[in-house]
Fold this protein.
Amino acid sequence: MTKNVSFSFLLCTLIVLVLLIACHNQEVKQPVVAVKTDSLLNRDASFKGAFSDQQILFLDISRVKKILGDFPLLGKYASEVQQFYKYRNNRYAWYEKSGLIEDAGNLYTHLNNLQDEGILESAPYIKSLDSLINNPAVTTRPDSVLEILLTAEYLFYADRVWNGISENQTTKLQWYIPRKKLDLPFITDSLIRDTSAPLFSDNYSFRQYNMLKAALKKYRQLETSAEWKPLDVKNKFKLNDRSPDIVLIRKKLYELGDLKQDNGSEIFDDSLQAAIKSFQTRYGMTADGIAGTVFLRYLNTPLRDYVRKIIINMERARWLPLDLKSHYLIINIPSFMLYVFDDDTLDFSMNVVVGKNVHKTVLFSGDIKYIVFSPYWDVPASILKNEILPGIQKDPNYLKRNNMEWVGNRVRQKPGPKNSLGLVKFLFPNSYNIYLHDTPAKSLFQHSTRAFSHGCIRLGEPEKLAIYLLRNDTGWSAAKIVAAMHKGVEKYVTLKNPIPVYIGYITAFVDDKGRINFRDDIYKRDGALEKMIIK
């Protein structure tokens, strides 16, 4: 087992985070989502959300709608504001007897620094808030307008920074993983009842969010300060080569953090080779340590493009569910990886093959309930029409040659080593007909980009996953599992403890070594989300 992971999401990170009809269907040790446990509230300890506990100042709750009528962009929170004060028995939250509490200023600071959260918009009515919060006549004694405005702004902040865009919008983006549900008045009430309690329970999505936030700050600073000349992508450099361009490569890798020390040398030495491998790993490339065309193209990409990619994935991290169980699987489509987590620790990972662009793998979640050893493959109608029937017309022995048979008006492939599903499949019932399975096409796992399937997910080490899922079942030893896979007789096994699996889409995440990773947007999903959040 790897060390305790300190999604991302990707859930992935995983969380993290696309249509399909059916399936025809270098181990990397960093998870989609990573880093050490951190509550969302601990993003910034200065914003504690500890409201006033005074007992003598009471608000006229009937004024909420009238006051918010002057701030229509916050009007959507009127009922939540009223509920908030109902929990407090209409007591002022931002004032104590001596005047405005310190946390009012903390909220004001956060609202003025939304860009730190990857939000490229201004908080509504920030100028009005500015004039009120800097007016001694208002801050030294209770003012209902400032009180209600602060509460509405607080709910806006929680909604925008912790909730993200609406579920209707994420559904349009074909993200079907259930969103976390945040009842804003309830959240604030949890703080009122116990102001020392964290706002949310610990969850990897927010740990990943924090790391992306730190990466955003770094890349913005680099974008402002770094002076990088573009490199000729037609060049190719390897160990012991010499060139002035190697000085430029070395400088870039040092500033990005892949190279520990920049000695300014024109000679391609061992340290530079290691730095290039680090960069290649972070970008999902084959880590061969050679500065070739693909490497140089990524190195030439403007930093502003990576800033935007980080912002896009900070938004995805906001959507991820809070109720992860102690054991779960995450599949990150752009990484072509599956990650297995036990008690917040990455147990192992493996390469996967996902749906090609015309057969995109759906982004959703489910529970793996069944393992099928030596499975039949029921050929989907679309594949039967487009591939099997034309094959039969050309070759009368097509079915026999491919170990297939007619069953009524459909075709299925018999169990065996040539079966398109391989020797085992893993089912988590869903309306998309998506599942995980073995494959006889083992060579595909050697590619750095692995989008080849009709939508289902092919596993690089299916035997390893089967052994893991049945590890606590005394009736299934590793030897028995291997035998069932090769027996050639289909057998269904129901898991005693179903395990959640999240299929997400994360193109920027931080690994367990604290390194920012980027992946290609293979399904062109980033652009649609960017239009929603980056104006």
Residues 40-193 form one domain. Confidence is low (pLDDT under 50) at residues 1-48, 194-204.
